[in-house]
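User: I'm putting together a teaching handout on how multi-component assemblies are represented. Below are the sequence lines for each component of a complex, exactly as they appear in our records. Could you produce the 3D structure of the whole assembly as structure tokens, so the students can see both representations side by side? Please keep the chain order the same as the input.
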Amino acid sequence: MSYVLKRLGFYLLAFWASITLNFLLPRLMPGDPVSRMFAKGGAKLTEEQALQLQQLFGLDDRPMWQQYISYIKSMLTGDMGVSISRFPSPVSAVIGSQIGWTILLGAVALLIAVLLGNLLGIIAAWYRGGFIDSVFPPLLVFLGSFPYFWLAMAGLYVFGTGLGWFPLRHAFTAGIVADWASPAFLGDVAYHLVLPASTIVLVSLGGWALGMRNTMISTNSEDYIVMAEAKGLKRSRIMLRYAARNAMLPSVTSFGMSLGFIVGGSMLTEVVFAYPGVGYQLLSAVNALDYPLMQGIFFTITAAVLAANFLVDIVYVRLDPRVRTA
Amino acid sequence: MSPITLSRRQALAGGAIGSVAALLALAGCSTDSAESAGRLLTIPREDMGTFTRNFNPFSPNNAPMTAQAIYEPMLIFNAVRGDTVPWLAESWEAAEDGMSMTFHLREDVTWSDGNPLVAQDVVTTFDVQLKTLGGYDYLDTVTAEDDHTVVFTFSRAYSVALYELGQQLVTPDHVWSKIDDPAKDTNENPVGTGPFTEIANFQAQSFDLMPNPTYWQKDKVKIPGIRMLAFAGNDGANLAAINGDVDWAPQYMADIQTAYVDKDSEHRHYWFPGIGSTIQWTLNTTKAPFNDPAFRKAVSQVVDREAVCQTGMSGYASPVDPTGMGEGFADWKDPEALASPLCTYDVSAAEKALDEAGYTKGADGRRSNPDGSELSFSISVGSTSSDWLSVAQIIVQNLADVGITATVDSPDWSEVTSSLENGSFDTAVCWSSVGATPYTYYQSAMSVDKVKPVGEQTFENYHRFGDQEATELLGQFAATFDEDEQKEICKQIQARFLETWPVIPLFPGPEWGAYTDVNFTGWPTEEDAYASLSTRSTTTVLILTSLEPRA
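Assistant: Of course. Below is the structure of the complete assembly, with chains in the same order as your input.
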């Protein structure tokens, strides 16, 4: 229990540090939101309008420390303010309307990559030097080393434009009514998910497979595996329940980390496939110097990463008895 | 933890994959709700990854088409032809003394909820506009003389007011007078006078605009509706255009002839009239040597604008003439000013001028300032503007040819903009101001009223140059409503522009626009320039009321 409490204290500290950074970083960037808007419009605004906009957005010119205090206060109460680039929508509404798609895409891709990658890793290590072991790891490393957007665009070009198997854009067909109870709509959503999700899976698969394969190989040389073999247990039983279970630990850690990063969105996928989500939103918030929205998104990511890490810590206590005494 | 965990995970995986497959099988049978009405005019929006349901015309980031299809102005200024189209107002006149202006509204206009358009609507519109976004510092009062007559009085004679007041989007009094905080209202179900006011099926990445049931030019609305699609960048929008999924492609596309038009040259066309703001090489006139007009004039002749447009801008732009004004202002240009050699590429003349002004070559072939100090500076361009970057590189090369050392500095646009705004830059490739008359351009280029000291934030006149004589001429221009007189004054302003040469104009900014007439016909073209191909201009409504489905 004291272990968990200690971890909790650490997370609180990390949380404070990161929201403070969230506050500082956007304010260190040059310019202000109105001049960004002005530059984008190519001087179609008049100077009077620009000044009025600064007022409308309630841009703060109080001293930094006062801004900081009210920032901390509003973060703790969950009030993230009003977005500037989406004025007058509140930040929570902007994030809320996108985060569902982000999580859907991220979670589907992550789950498939983790399951498939680990399975490949287990099999490759168990049948070392076999077909899977000699073909997949190099192939996956090859795929994973592609610049990600290139792979996404190639996928879009071949399977979308060329063969016409998959839609080119968006989370579902334009013009159909979003009805989550209708199987036709769910089918449409899944259909639109295939290309973006599989490009993410292809790129990340190698990491999972290789990591698992390496720990699995060292586990395989442990005495208890030899012992299990000597006792004549079934090969598949030794592979999955003796070796794989113990080799799983590092994978669980990275899974937890990745889980947290899901909410950050996959920006390049969103841009290439015009998929809705937080990643592109963050990019445009940075471009527009939309402080409240940037802070809101960073806050969400920070909170999710820390929560996921905390979960992993707790799971570790269950998985690995050594942690409990440490 | 029991061994069951793993098998449960496997089961889950199997289940997930199975259900995805099942869903895929179903995907073929999704239906389109609006398809029964016929094909909708499909327009991409390349800089919004998702839409927010905000149709507030007073909001700076409202949903696309708010200002084009839903709300309408009293008059429309067509920048390509330089003419004015009466819209909600059928006529207008200025008082003799120029201190007031009267607009006569059409009597057959109704709002999309059935109420008639009255003068009070215009009065409330300006009320709300002044309260939320401001502007119109010359405006004194707005009054409804009778149901269809609105009178504006000014605190000073200001002729440019016609276009500014006339192009304000008119909103209904019976809606907006009841909204407490108009700046923060998202106006989800707008009531407008425009051709397409009914929002259908609003989703994060697409929405449909259906015809206004009570539109005042009903016979001109021939298309069944508009569908907007969201894209998180030019690439996605371009792909949709190339694939033929959208009818209109208003975004920038590199090598548009090969990438887009050649795929279906019978139906696809592009047209980039130079009616945007003039793109110029802005020199910070608070620094030496840019404070020397002789230097500015000489380096202007060093720039090969033909190469700038052909190579830098891929031939999408044409060189500017010495008046600095765009293509829509042909009537205003003084033939004498047009004959000036300041925008002509002439290396020997430039070298001579530089020698005479004291920027002489040293033994190493490099020029130095008249006081002997080193002559070198940077040209700033935002790193994302690849076309302007190559423009800057051409200028650097041109300068090197005459012995001047310049370098391209390409940080993020935010950094460039902030150095422009506070006056710390050397030189930059950037935009200028553009309006319905040359007044806007010359005011921001030369008026002392627009000059702020270095260090103070400014949004116009980044080069920080003011000329007293030009300012007086501009004042006279604004004070007269007689167009012939304005043209006379404008000639003198142009002469002053050539005399002082505050900035180095390069080319009028092209207004991007491409379309396919596979589904709809009646698009504006260079021959029939009733509007530009922009989807964000006041002229867009002219296109929406001209297109018809292909039979």
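A couple of points students might notice: Chain B touches chain A through 78 residues (CB under 8 Å). Confidence is low (pLDDT under 50) at residues 1-35 of chain B.
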